[in-house]
Amino acid sequence: MHEERLDSYSVHCPYCSMPFDLLVDVSQGSHATWEDCPYCCSPIQVRVEVSPIEGELEALVLGRDDEVL
């Protein structure tokens, strides 16, 4: 993880709808990971899509653990 590439994004939990800031490491390229909601502790799927050319975030998709992303 490269701390200089951590960007904060405002998102909402797909379970409880509470807003929170999610740190995303775009230096890893496109990837999928899991985060727990800081409020209801539910597991959230996170799909990060990064442009291979610019290295910038193209999409950030959150879903419940039973959804297919």
Structure notes:
This protein is mainly beta and 69 residues long. It has one domain (3-64). It has strands spanning 6-12, 19-25, 31-36, 43-50, 57-64. The protein has a three-stranded antiparallel β-sheet with strand order 3-4-5, with no helix packed on it. A two-stranded antiparallel sheet has the order 1-2. The protein is globular. It starts with 5 loop residues before the first strand and ends in a 5-residue tail after the last strand. Pfam families: Zn_ribbon_21. It comes from Billgrantia tianxiuensis. This is CPXCG motif-containing cysteine-rich protein.
Task: Offer a concise description of the structure.
With 69 residues, this protein is an all-beta fold. It has no helices and five strands. The strands form two sheets. It has a three-stranded antiparallel sheet, with no helix packed on it.
Descriptors for this entry?
single chain, 69 residues, mainly beta, three-stranded antiparallel β-sheet, 5 strands, 0% helix, 52% strand, globular
Number of strands: 5
Beta content: over 45%
Segments where pLDDT lies below 50 for 5+ residues? Answer: none
State the share of residues found in helices, binned by percent: under 10%
Estimated radius of gyration: 12 Å
- What is the chain-wise order of helices and strands? EEEEE
Question: Which word captures the global form?
Answer: globular
Q: What's the total helix number?
A: 0
Spatial arrangement of strands, main beta sheet: 3-4-5
Q: Output mean pLDDT.
A: 92
Tally of individual domains: 1
* Major sheet summary line: 3 strands, antiparallel
Q: Report how far apart the termini are.
A: 23 Å
Q: Which class of secondary structure composition applies to the elements?
A: mainly beta
